[in-house]
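Colleagues,

Please find the record for the two-part complex below.
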Amino acid sequence: MTQGANHFSLERGLNAWREEIDAPVASFFSSCVHCGLCAQACPFFVETGDPKYTPIHKLEPMRLLWEQEYTVWGKLKKLIKDRIDAKLGRESKPLITDEMLEEWEPLLYDSCTMCGRCSMVCPVGNDIHYMIRKAREGMVASGHSPEGLLAASVRAVNTGSPMGLQWKTLEVQIKHVETATGLEVPIDKQGADFLVLLSSMEIINFPEYLEAITKIFDHADVSWTLSKTCFEATNAGIQIGSKDIAATLVQRVVDAAEELQVKNVISPECGHAYTAIRWEGPNAIKRAYPFKVYHIIEVLDQLRTDGRIKTEGKEMDRLSMHDPCNLARKSGVVQQQRSLMDLVAGDFVDLQEHGELQWCCGAGGGVSSNERAEPLKLAAFKRKKAQIEEVEPERMVTMCATCRTQLEEGLEEFNMDIPVVGLTEMIADHLVEKEKAEQS
Amino acid sequence: MTSMDFLLFIKGPMFSIAVAIFALGILVRLFEILALGRAHNYAAARGNEIIPGLKTIYRRFNPDPGTFKRSTFDVLVGTLWHVGFVVVLLLFIPHIELIQSTIGIGWPGLPNPVVDAVTAITLLGLVAVLIHRFRQPVKRFLSTREDYLIWLVTFLPVLTGYLAYHRLINPYPLALGLHILSAEVFLIVLPFTKLSHIFTAFVARYYNGAIFGRKGIQS
């Protein structure tokens, strides 16, 4: 992004970093010995071989600020440098410049999905993705965030959807679902147990999802509703790294949930929407929610445990599964999707590294909204492709619209004939008819 | 100044200065980290923080199979020389005697020939990781002057210890003096460089485990 808008400035960026630097960050920077093992955990490095994509290197500007301002040694060095400069009558060189941040912008956005795999591998224990998320705050405030993401954020704030999608479009889909299923899609139902959120990408690319939950919730007698004022679960503010935008978007969900007095909010088959609402949201608005937040997979697995989902028949082709980073590694939902797979899959094989050590699809963390990152996104996918080739499934199953789109596009790019399906739909396809279920 | 004067200075005032800088430096370092604190977390926790935090401290000694496969040299040689360094530092009988006379706690040591062999392995390990740092593209890219400096500061006490033990530097008081001096440099440099990871890595690992643990994942 260019330096046009005057509310962005280097100083604001540095101030944002000063706000973000906390005890964990200081302990991480103090501990890095430049071993480079994080590179081996990053799909962007592994598939390009370019050392500049080493995760910890992406944080170098923020590290410089930390060293100079938060360590005794750094303060001392600055003092000496300033003295020397004053003696020689020359101006002190700034530590961090706009040029530097411009150089780092693609490193912090185009080549990082904040998947957190490096954080699981670092021998000294650095949670690198925790720092990348923080570093992005300074990038936005200094005016160095990608056009694509910025446009998505503006659309999300202005229209409620990062893709500019409006209720009218969703309404058409709801009608389709109602016609196809003969069931009602509840809208603005006061006091429902669950408020269901969707993602624009899902509404556009995977309308099957809404139909699937309509069927499943009818089958399991779940009281649920959509909200006309807020149906979007995704949060562009968290992807780009702006707490203000994040808070605005989260507040809409909270307002809708409070207005309808629901007990629970369900995040759709979308990874970042879940981490955004579940983990970051309360901190963005600085208060705990009066409701609980679940990913749809958690809800389905709970229904399964309670015996409220009855299925018949199984998929007999060889299936494997992609764990969305946001759901598995970053939110602790690992077993639930496997228990659900057991219900409906006759021949399931896990990818070798899965769950908390899965490899990212390459599209998360805003990379898919950032057109400039397109070639890197495809490069990073090659790691996933290699994983898929190891187990040779006939189809892949996942539970995130962004991952699913990336898998579909990536597999097509490499001429691999492996369809990708959403787990929720697959469950819906195997439901026992309601009357039959009631008889048994 | 004779070599004996040199040794007496290094063992006496210089040792006190080094220990003081080290102790104070590390306290300041830990303080400047911990004092930053953490913002209150309003999100409902899925899991505990403390137990996963402590587990991660241990677990990062033991990398996952994928990392081991992709970074076999780093894991093997890195572990080898770290363990060697600690064994030599803490289980060589004269070192234990020094620690006992400084802080009053002692423990049994290893026979000298064993420590000698471990020292030789540690030296080879350190040379190997230096070569690796020069040659492996990511390491070479990341490395700064500080990385090479701390390598040297780590290597010298081991090397001078080995040379002194085998009487390869003469006279002996000079050899011992150089060894103790290099250890003092290590202590003085430690709090202000990445060598502080000796302490802060445990803090970092704890935070890592706690952050993930809260979300229900053991990192």
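Chain A touches chain B through 63 residues (CB under 8 Å).

Comments are welcome before we finalize the supplementary table.
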